[in-house]
């Protein structure tokens, strides 16, 4: 079992490294394939050993091998976090949900990073990623739609109206619709409430009321909290 945990941790750190790279390249407006990874400060192309998740950071002692500029800790933290979450998923989530839950974490982290860096989300990542995840949970989607079809449609119309009035982001709306289909109507109301509370706490801590703030990170975190809560509750009552 320890080997499986180790392999999943490695897989998690690699995916964490990949999504950090994709989000950062989205911020710079460059392709995810070309050019090869480089130092932000001296533009030197990084060698393979420097790109190994977590280990590359440790071997370089947190500084660029070439110019000694400090390397931001954020990418390593994300690698470590996704690796730990993959092990956590293996322990608490049933086998059938393991792949879905892990992909959900990776996708939500990626779109959160993109929104955090640029206040926008790549539409292909958002729409196709969400669609693929919902196909995984086709039966849940149908059940949630059957249960609250009219009120979900009404809510979507209100959100789209807010989009047209520029009062709410399109990506935020798409993620809320994703939440309706995955978690159901009432759980999504809790998601929206929780995201607003997290957002307000963050604003109060930063005390920056002038600039625009990303909302996708709060929505994503809230979706994950409610998703895990539902799954852990199911395990506890079985
Ligand atoms: Zn450098």
Automatic annotation (TrEMBL):
The chain crosses the membrane at residues 6-26, 77-110, 148-168, 174-203, 215-237. Keywords: Membrane, Transmembrane, Transmembrane helix. One of its GO terms (cellular component) is plasma membrane. InterPro entries: Prepilin_pept_A24_N, Prepilin_peptidase/N-MTase. Residues 10-90 form the Prepilin peptidase A24 N-terminal domain. The keyword Transport does not apply. Pfam families: A24_N_bact. One of its GO terms (biological process) is signal peptide processing. GO terms for molecular function: aspartic-type endopeptidase activity. The keyword Transport does not apply. This is Prepilin peptidase.
């Amino acid at each position: 079992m320890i080997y499986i945990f180790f392999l999943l941790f490695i897989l998690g750190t690699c995916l964490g490294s990949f999504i950090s790279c994709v989000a950062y390249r989205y911020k710079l407006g460059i392709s995810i394939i070309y050019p090869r990874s480089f130092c932000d400060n001296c533009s030197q192309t990084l060698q393979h050993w420097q790109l190994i998740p977590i280990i590359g950071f440790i071997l370089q002692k947190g500084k660029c091998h070439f110019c000694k500029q400090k390397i931001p800790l954020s990418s390593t933290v994300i690698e470590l976090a996704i690796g730990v979450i993959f092990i956590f998923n293996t322990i608490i989530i049933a086998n059938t949900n393991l792949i879905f839950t892990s992909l959900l974490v990776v996708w939500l982290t990626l779109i959160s990073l993109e929104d955090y860096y640029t206040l926008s989300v790549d539409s292909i990542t958002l729409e196709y990623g969400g669609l693929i995840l919902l196909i995984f949970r086709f039966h849940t989607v149908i059940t949630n739609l059957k249960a609250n079809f009219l009120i979900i449609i009404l809510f979507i119309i209100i959100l789209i109206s807010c989009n047209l009035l520029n009062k709410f982001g399109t990506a935020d709306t798409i993620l809320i619709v994703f939440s309706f289909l995955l978690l159901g109507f009432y759980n999504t109301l809790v998601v929206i409430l929780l995201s607003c509370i997290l957002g307000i706490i963050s604003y109060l801590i930063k005390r920056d009321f002038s600039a625009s703030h990303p909302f996708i990170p709060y929505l994503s975190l809230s979706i994950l909290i409610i998703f895990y809560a539902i799954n852990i509750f199911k395990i506890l009552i079985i």
